[in-house]
Amino acid sequence: MARPIDQAFPKTSRLRKRAEYLDVQGNGRRVESRAHIGLFVRREGGVTRLGITTTKKLGPAVVRNRARRVVREAFRRGEIALPAGVELVVIPKHAAVGLTGEAAAEDLARLGERVREALER
Description:
By secondary structure, the protein is of the alpha+beta class. The protein is 39% helix and 18% strand. It is built from three helices and four strands, in the order H-E-E-E-H-E-H. It starts with 17 loop residues before the first helix and ends with a helix.
């Protein structure tokens, strides 16, 4: 069953190509929370977009997929409040593995706060 349109995570809100990830990772600034690393770039007049990277060091596929799902859901719900035009790549750390959805959302909200603080500097 398809999600209602207001609950979707549209393609326009995602980083989709390797070159986009490499650009953010190479030219972006880094912030951290307890369980996540964030790399971000601000694009004037752009759309806020999210990319998620997990490595095999995090655990088996089930663990990596859950970590990505939790980050996507927090972004979709607006719990990672970012200004317009920010492209963010989130990398879950080992501390993200055992977190509940609510605890992960709180940690990602802190990550969003750190991004906003870094943009103000």
